[in-house]
Target: Phosphonate ABC transporter ATP-binding protein
Amino acid sequence: MIELNAIHRAYRSDEVETTALADIDLSVQAGEFVAIMGPSGCGKSTLLNILGTIDRPTSGTYLFEGEDIAKAPEAQLAKLRRDRLGFVFQSFNLIDELTIAENVALALAYRSMPAREKRERVDAAMDRVGIAHRRNHHPHQLSGGQQQRAAIARAIVGEPKLILADEPTGNLDTENGAQVMDILTRLNADGATIVMVTHSPAHADIARRTVHMLDGRILSAVRRAA
Ligand code: ADP
Ligand code: ADP
Model:
């Protein structure tokens, strides 16, 4: 599904150049669940941002479903993000002025489908993460775990090809973190491809493969039996 080749990302400010990613090669097959680990500053977020087309590599190629998108026009990337990617963040990023159902529905705003189908999809996504009973609440009325489940519903409602999760359990206690991991595991078993940044070795163990990074490079990849 995804192939990164010789990806390099440098930031330049004044005279100082920082290499965030150096020569990254990474393939992700459809249906995989990949964890990315490494110390702060090693390039995990930069890598996830490039996968999510929020950031662009300085050089290298990025094939998404066979198409080289490293230099694709922004409008094409915006459409790709909307139609084929789902994002989950550490800080949930829900809109507090909207209800949970409205937050989830927002991800379908630019999809052309009948209103009834949108409603059904929103209901189904909320059901899958056990948040339907909070559909008319606003984010601040929910626990952190509930908010992250709602954010996952928003990420999956468009049936994305790839889910990108940046420390999805980073702001959650052990029990809520475990619930979120159970949901991600279930989504993966149902066919979703997931790339997740995590600081939790236990949560990385749940993924099928862990990619260890250091200083902008991939150190090693650990694969686990299915
Ligand atoms: P991680 O997510 O593993 O903590 P990041 O991808 O955020 O690492 O950062 C990788 C490196 O790139 C770090 O040295 C960081 O300081 C640098 N970096 C990240 N974003 C920027 C930026 N916008 N401008 C300059 N340097 C940046
Ligand atoms: P919290 O995460 O704040 O503890 P939950 O939403 O997990 O809150 O739980 C609130 C109540 O809703 C609990 O009684 C729980 O058993 C119930 N509940 C949670 N998920 C579902 C679901 N998918 N269907 C029905 N009831 C649920």
